[in-house]
Amino acid sequence: MRSTENRLRFLGAISAIEGLFYLAYAFLVVIGISRDGLTGPSQVANASGVTLEVLIFAIFGAAMLGVSFGWFGRRRWARAPFALAQVLALVVSVPLIGATELLQQIIAVGVTIVALVGTFMAFTPRVTQQLHGDEVARESN
């Protein structure tokens, strides 16, 4: 029982860290724009594009914090958005493993490992039983 609770806490912590990361990224984009203005190619450096980027990351960050509360509250619905977020993290991190800068490679490997471990843990039988425990208990009676 304790092991399952720790797994749910670990999954909640992963979600919370990811959510805070996305919120921090959105905040840093706003800081960068206010400090340096719109820089870069005109296809991506325009007011509507940057606004959309900030909104997407802010919404995604808030959603991941919500997923974190779902894990801590043993809510079944937390698994689907968590799994989707891990797939998206893998889509970005796996190609970055081949980056030229060592720091980017280290971060990419770390994100990849956390995403893989988190996805594996989210679908372990113990976590599934904990999330569906009340239904399983009702059906067995």
The portion of residues forming beta strands comes to under 5%
Terminal residue distance: 21 Å
Reading the helices and strands in chain order gives HHHHH
Number of strands: 0
Provide the low-confidence segments as ranges.
none
Write the layout of secondary structure elements.
Blueprint (H helix, E strand, L loop, with lengths): L1 H35 L10 H26 L6 H18 L5 H21 L2 H16 L1
Can you give me a brief rundown of this structure?
This protein has 141 residues and is mostly helical. 82% of the residues lie in helices and 0% in strands. It has one domain (2-140).
Give a verbal description of the structure.
The chain has 141 residues and is mainly α. It has one domain (2-140). 82% of the residues lie in helices and 0% in strands. The protein is built from 5 helices and no strands. The protein has helices spanning 2-36, 47-72, 79-96, 102-122, 125-140. Helix 1 (2-36) runs antiparallel to helix 2, helix 1 (2-36) runs antiparallel to helix 4 and helix 3 (79-96) runs antiparallel to helix 4 (102-122). The radius of gyration is 18 Å and the shape is globular. 20% of the residues are buried.
Features:
mainly alpha, 0% strand, 141 residues, globular, single chain, 5 helices
